[in-house]
Write a structure and sequence with these properties.
This protein is an alpha/beta fold. Helix content is 41%, strand content 21%.
Length: 607
């Protein structure tokens, strides 16, 4: 194994008297591709800053091979003091670095170098910061959320650049596809310590779950051992007191181990559920030939689309393509220049906006969730105390009175989700919901959306999230043109032959002045060609569930076949009878559901 260029050992750091890092380690060798993963607030960014030499830990050692160069990309780049993006990038070059790489990388990332540094958007600032750390070609690159505020075009371009670099890379990101593409080893920061897996992120979650399951088994064994020792202490022989005192000390040691194990248990999980409104009509949104332009620049050009109950539509395109404008047009928040948008019956809308702008920075967390009315939130038709609901989204009780401006980006994202999901809706519109969310929260959000009973419109740059959630993808073709494709992002790429940042198909010679034939597929046509995500999943899993339920029914029937059971044990007879009834009902429901989906599948294939 190659000697490390950078080595952190036994790193410890306390924040406010609480240990954030407690024996964390990190080793980076030449050309390593490491991803650093962990929950929001686990200390990933802090560990990366310690690696960069920007933060001094309370304990531990940091070793850097002489002459090794490091560049660090922060989450929030600071371009103050520079007139242009080119000046900012050039300031990061050392003597001997190629000065031409500054402008070359800026252009590759979609900038010219002449942009005023004081007037950049979040995405432009991120591109300039990326060019600054990439231009010197350092030995080690430390990247903290490099895809934040980037569109799909820039993300795919960045993937290509990093894949070709000779630098070692340590990467923090919530973009699962990005991590899977680039990483070859994974460092998991959990409860202050690190574990390393010498495989990429694609294998991480299976490994992590196995580690947590082993910890749970160890805790269970420890609990059983303590129970045995406590039983001995109460009822055991009292002779040979010296030996007994030693055993008592051993019991106290076990209890201490259990307290420490519980203190090291993973933090709680986000619990998500939607507040379902009354069912909408079959038609949710119908748009006919809608057009929208700003300053003679077309945003939407003659788009016709029909969205029905249960559809999950993903909207993708580069920054500036008009994705948010399109959503506002479809939800009747914004009027088109021409054409018509019609909402169906009983449509109740809940939204999560991209910039979290609807959060009052001075309002408290409790006021945001309750709209300033009392201390209760109505979730699932039941009144819940706001503090209990906050805990579902990993907020501490003392944060109920904290102002929004005191929250981190991840906490603001969770707060927006909590508010959106608490509102009754049958049409959920999520504009970049994955921003600032950790991977575990993204998994839970994905599971919740997969079971969503209503309709979903999702704007996202997260390719993996789109693939897992949506059943149709509405993609920007540029110049106000939008095309709908069946399936997720990968399905769209397969159908059109390129991603959002790829080259368009060659022109076929069609006269653009002639009336354009409307070849845009409609979600309604999609639903005749493709089972929904839930139905596809159910078709795969229901046969196994039916087999298990059949076994349960037979087992309970065999139990009740004993003629002496009732006389011998009436409670067991009653329990077996109830269990048999429940299993029979569940089996009937599963068989009916499988039959419904199978008939639907056959109908689709015939169509």
């Amino acid at each position: 194994m190659a000697p490390p260029l950078l080595l952190l050992q036994d790193v410890r750091l306390d924040i406010g008297g609480e240990p954030l890092l407690d024996g964390a380690e990190l080793a980076v060798a030449a050309r390593d591709r490491l991803c650093l993963v962990g929950r929001n607030g686990s200390g990933k960014s802090t560990l990366l800053k310690i690696a960069a030499g920007m933060v001094e830990p309370d304990g531990g050692t940091r070793f850097l091979q002489p002459s090794t160069t490091i560049r660090y990309l922060p989450q929030e780049p600071d371009l103050s003091g520079f007139n242009t993006t080119l000046a900012f990038v050039e300031a990061g070059l050392a003597s001997g670095d190629d000065p031409h790489r500054a402008r070359l990388l800026l252009e590759a990332l979609g900038l010219t170098g002449d942009e005023a540094a004081s007037r950049l958007s979040g995405g432009e600032s991120r591109r300039a910061a990326l060019a600054r750390v990439l231009a010197p070609e350092p030995d080690i690159l430390l990247l903290d959320e490099p895809t934040n505020h980037l569109d799909l075009v820039a993300i795919e371009a960045l993937e290509s650049m990093l894949g070709e670099l000779r630098s070692a890379i340590v990467l923090i990101s919530h973009d699962r596809r990005f991590l899977e593409t680039l990483s070859r080893a994974t460092v998991w920061l959990d409860r202050g310590t690190t574990r390393r897996l010498d495989r990429g992120f694609a294998d991480f979650e299976t490994w992590r779950d196995a580690v947590l399951e082993e910890e749970e088994r160890d805790r269970h064994k420890l609990d059983r051992q303590i129970a045995r020792e406590e039983d001995w202490l109460r009822y055991g022989v009292t002779a040979r007191r010296k030996r007994n005192q030693g055993r008592l000390r051993a019991l106290n040691d076990l209890r201490r181990d259990r307290r420490e194990a519980r203190a090291r248990q993973p933090t709680g999980s986000v619990t998500m559920s939607t507040q379902e409104a009354r069912q909408s009509g079959k038609l949710v949104i119908e748009a006919e030939e809608i057009v929208k332009s700003y300053d003679h620049r077309p945003i939407v050009r003659a788009l016709s689309i029909r969205i029905e109950r249960g559809d999950r539509i993903g909207i993708v395109g580069p920054n500036g393509a008009g994705k948010t404008t399109l959503v506002n047009l479809l939800t009747d928040v914004l009027s088109p220049d021409s054409g018509e948008v019609r909402l169906g019956a009983n449509v109740e809308l809940a939204t999560l906006d991209q910039r979290r702008e609807s959060l009052d920075p001075e309002a408290t967390v409790a006021e945001v969730l309750t709209d300033g009315r009392g201390d209760t939130v109505i979730v699932g038709g039941e009144a819940r105390h706001v503090v209990g609901y906050m805990k579902d989204f990993l907020f501490r009780p003392d944060q109920a009175r904290a102002p929004v401006k005191a929250l981190s980006g991840g906490e603001r994202g969770r707060l927006m989700l909590a508010r959106a999901l608490a509102r009754p809706s049958n049409l959920l519109v999520l504009d970049e919901p994955t921003n600032d969310l950790d991977l575990e929260t993204l998994d839970l959000l994905q599971e919740m959306l997969a079971d969503l009973p209503g309709t979903l419109i999702l704007v996202s740059h997260d390719r993996d999230f789109l693939d897992r959630i949506v059943t149709a993808t509405l993609a920007s073709d540029g110049d106000g043109e939008w095309t709908l494709y069946a399936g997720g992002y990968s399905d769209m790429v397969a159908q059109r032959g390129h991603g959002i940042g790829g080259r368009a198909r060659p022109d076929t010679g069609r006269d653009r002045s002639a009336p354009k034939e409307d070849t845009t597929p409609k979600p309604r046509a999609k639903s005749k060609q493709r089972l929904s995500f839930n139905d596809q999943h159910a078709l795969k899993t229901l046969p196994g569930r039916i087999a298990e339920l059949t076994k349960d029914v037979r087992r309970h029937e065999e139990t009740l076949a004993d003629p002496d059971l009732y006389a011998r044990d009436p409670d067991a007879f009653a329990g077996a009878t109830k269990a048999l009834t429940t299993a029979q009902e569940s089996l009937a429901e599963a068989e009916d559901e499988w039959l419904r989906i199978e008939l639907l599948r056959e109908s689709i294939e015939e169509t």
